[in-house]
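Could you help me review a protein record that somebody else here produced? What it holds is a sequence and that sequence's fold in token form. I have pasted the whole thing underneath without changing anything:
=====
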Amino acid sequence: MTDKTYNGWTNYETWRVNLEVFDGFDLSEFNGADDAEVDIYAFSKQLEEYADEVIFSGIRYDERAPSSLMEDYARAFLQAVNWYEIAKHMVEDYILENEQ
């Protein structure tokens, strides 16, 4: 098995989405994410939905039309993202920042 880690993250896709979509993001903008008892899994699902909205916001959907090749590649890229890792990282950073 090949090591696919990238800059300390699970893979390149996770690192890149974290950097370009969530870096510097305020946790309080997510419902309940800044709560001490945050459900990391539920938060990871919120992050996935948010990224999907941000990345595909300019695409007009027609259910009868096939998706574009570009959209297919983007969705395949996003499937490789470890959303749980991003959520956990964001919560841990928030806790560290607020302990000081």
Observations:
- Residues 12-99 form one domain.
- The radius of gyration is 15 Å.
- Residues 40-56 form the longest helix (17 residues).
- The chain has four helices and no strands.
